[in-house]
Amino acid sequence: MAKQKRKRKQKLLYRPVGILLGMASGAVASTLFAKAWAAIGDGDAPDAMDEEREWKEILLAAAVQGAIFAVVKAAVDRSGAMGVRRVTGSWPG
What we know:
The chain is 78% helix and 0% strand. The chain has 93 residues and is mainly alpha-helical. It has one domain. Helix 1 packs antiparallel against helix 2 (55-88). The longest helix is centred in the first third of the chain and has 39 residues, at 2-40.
């Protein structure tokens, strides 16, 4: 019973850390995507509603952006969980 309470408390304490890490990962991923698109695309990344852009360009941008965001989020989430384990001795969640 005490172990379950401790685990719940750790989840609750990790929540604000997770939110901050999520915001940071979004900013990092956004920067990485802008640099990646500058290397492979022509100009700014297209928006799905951009009438002037072709389907293939819009879908390529979406795929690259999604891949970058997923990788950065996984790396940041994993690093955050490892940091919490180092500090508290147990894995969050």
